[in-house]
Amino acid sequence: MLPPAKSTLAGETDALFTFINVSSFIFILSITTAMLYFAWRFRRKSDDEVTPVISHNNLLEITWSVIPLILVIIVFSWGYTTYMKKISPPSDAYEIRVVGKSWLWEFHYANGNVSINELHVPADRPVKLVMSSEDVIHSFYVPDFRVKKDVLPNRYSSVWFEATEEGESTIYCTEYCGTAHSDMLATVFVHSQDDFADWLETSGDSGEDLPPEERGEVLVEQNACLTCHSTDGSSLTGPTFQGSWGSEVSLENGETVEFDENYVRESILEPNAKVHEGYQPVMPAYAGTLDDREIDAIIEYIKTLD
Ligand code: CUA
Q: What is the pTM of this model?
């Protein structure tokens, strides 16, 4: 019933989970059965029957105190040692910065690469994530690795894991963070150490050799713009890109502005400066994420969506 266990500490976590579940089940079953049996066995059979007074039974009371005490001590010490392992990353862990924004995950690697909604990690090597939020509280959760931790504004939190097999796992946001909370999904790609090194090497270029409008299409996909902006005219959390180029945009403050290069650029870098009428000011800022060439490519792509 549990998701596949794909990290070094997942097995230990599951074992404790199973221990607590199975022992709870055994006790619920045996206590309930005993209760029902006693209720039937010692039921009142006639009106003149008198129940003898029993004040206490030392042996019985010690037994039902000591057994739960031992079980609680086992669960505590087991939980404590596993928890300590989970919050203490090995000193040689590979570090990746994670930024949560409404509603996407950004991953920054040591060599300056950034990936959005895709976390790439090597297998069989501890990875430490140093996480923060740019807006509200999010929570980083990978069921397959059995790791979950809140991602907070103005404070760093961290998790670590060591993936044991290559493949893909889903990352969820598990703290309700607004309209598109349930779309705040990402994927962990676990590579062999060599493939990971290759990925780091080559991923830096986001299609620089493509024609601008094609590069723009790739960037719009990579940067999770499509979570909120459609390209087919439908209205999601944000306005559609289709037919937007050159149109007059009514703003929340009652002004109108032309949908041109300046408007797109400003809206990417500082989304809340001019908010489209009828939409919430919820877009994350891409200043520091997209550079000028990339913004130009996105502009070229939007121009093609008429
Ligand atoms: Cu981010 Cu829910």
A: 0.74
